[in-house]
Write a structure and sequence with these properties.
about 120 residues; globular; mainly beta; about 35% strand; single chain; 1 helix
Length: about 120
């Protein structure tokens, strides 16, 4: 009787952090993400990530990149929220880019969560 010493690896990848499964906000204003010096409009966002459309850049699925997110709402008296950090691209096809934050410092995560909570209650 032969005993297997190794288990076969699973080919399935872990599920991506899907923005559709979380509450998101559609910005009403001039909100965008700056990638390599170009600005792309934000379709929706949450503290964990964002979706851009239309997107015509060079990022591909499973790529990491450094970006800056600027959220500015019409009629909002507070200053725009600006967060710079690293993202992991989940989707980059058909003019849409969906990405999630990775490795953000705690203070930036807290700022995103606070801004998000304020927009949900408004």
């Amino acid at each position: 009787m032969m005993m297997a010493l190794f288990r076969p690896r699973s080919r399935a990848t872990p599920p991506a952090n899907d923005l559709a499964a979380q509450p998101t906000i559609r910005p009403r204003g001039d909100s965008y993400v700056r990638i390599d010096g170009r600005d792309y409009p934000v379709r929706c966002w949450s503290p964990s990530g964002f979706t851009l459309a239309p997107y015509s850049g060079a990022l591909i699925r499973r790529q990491k990149a450094r970006v800056t997110l600027i959220l500015s709402e019409f009629g909002d008296r507070s200053e725009p929220l600006e967060v710079s950090g690293e993202i992991f691209v989940d989707v980059a096809e058909n003019g849409i880019l969906s990405a999630r934050w990775t490795g953000l410092p705690k203070y930036k995560v807290a700022a995103l969560a606070e801004y998000f909570a304020g927009k949900l209650s408004a």
